[in-house]
Write a structure and sequence with these properties.
The strands form 4 sheets. The chain has a 5-stranded antiparallel sheet. Strands 3-8-6-7 form a 4-stranded antiparallel sheet. 32% of the residues are buried. The chain has helices at residues 2-10, 81-85, 107-116, 138-143, 146-165, 167-173; strands at 21-23, 36-37, 48-53, 59-63, 71-76, 93-97, 100-101, 123-128, 135-136, 175-187, 193-202, 209-219, 225-234, 241-245. The radius of gyration is 18 Å and the shape is globular. With 250 residues, the protein is an alpha+beta fold. It has 6 helices and 14 strands. The model is unreliable at 1-43 (pLDDT under 50). Strand 12 (209-219) and strand 13 form a beta hairpin.
């Protein structure tokens, strides 16, 4: 498997507990009730996104863990199209290539489609950050209005993306597998959104551990979220904080 992945990269083809609440999308507008937040007008689930790239994509794909279908992004080629886009991160799940649903396809089937795709036109990929619904502490859910809840969700997802891209994070913490629960969020008058959440990491895909993560995000003019501060602290008395992104102060 590793040899196949490496070869394709060289060829340039890779191109909760019941008391918590959840972030979850439907087509019926944002509302808050005892269980979920909803957002209107979304044609894709939270965490899904599209990106257009021209081959070589600069993406290394791999099959998901046993029991899970589909393929995911293993890594990005340095300086490649995917890395330069700043949209794709290790851990993202590949859902569609153009109009073809590959969410349940095996590695070889996906590679066949990518190989056959023309090299002179942009290829549209639909991916997911794989986080799905994120649990949120009940007391926090009661405090947030729907707009702030949307922003908090976006900041958490952007923070996860930065962590998955970070060499420092991978060296010290391994792979971020999933968000466990969002326990804190607040939006200042200047638009800054600060969040705190717990995420599950693994250095060997077998054993896991929890980290407390704090992040601050700001919304850019184009609607994207820029993470300006990001720290991780291993739970269970590790006693060390890793700064992934340090806020620049005047």
């Amino acid at each position: 498997m590793a040899k196949r992945a490496a070869a394709l990269l060289i060829l340039g083809l890779f191109c909760s507990p019941p008391t918590v609440l959840c972030f979850a999308p439907t087509n019926e507008g944002w509302m808050i009730n005892r269980r979920k937040f909803y957002k209107a007008g979304r044609s894709m689930a939270l965490g899904d996104f599209t990106v257009e790239l021209i081959k070589p994509l600069g993406i290394v794909l791999q099959e998901r863990e046993a029991g899970d279908v589909g393929v995911q992004v293993a890594s990005l080629a340095e300086g490649g199209a995917a890395e330069k886009s700043r949209d794709i991160s290790p851990g993202d799940l590949l859902l569609k290539i153009g109009d073809k649903d590959v969410s349940k396809s095996d590695f070889d089937s996906v590679m066949d489609i990518l190989v056959e795709a023309p090299a002179d036109t942009a290829l549209q990929l639909t991916l997911s950050d794989g986080l799905g619904r994120m649990d949120i502490a009940p007391n926090l859910a009661r405090q947030l209005n729907p707009e702030d809840a949307i922003l908090a969700d976006q900041v958490v997802r952007a923070a996860v993306r930065e962590i998955r891209r970070s060499n420092t994070s991978r060296a010290n913490l391994g792979e971020l597998l999933r968000v466990e629960i969002v326990i804190g969020a607040g939006v200042r008058e200047n638009g800054r959104c600060m969040v705190r959440f717990f995420a599950i990491f693994s250095t060997d895909t077998v054993t896991t551990f929890s980290c407390s993560i704090s992040a601050t995000g700001v919304t850019q003019k184009d609607g994207t979220i820029d993470i300006i501060a990001l720290t991780c602290a291993k739970d269970e008395g590790w006693g060390q904080t890793i700064d992934i992104i340090r806020e620049v102060t005047d």
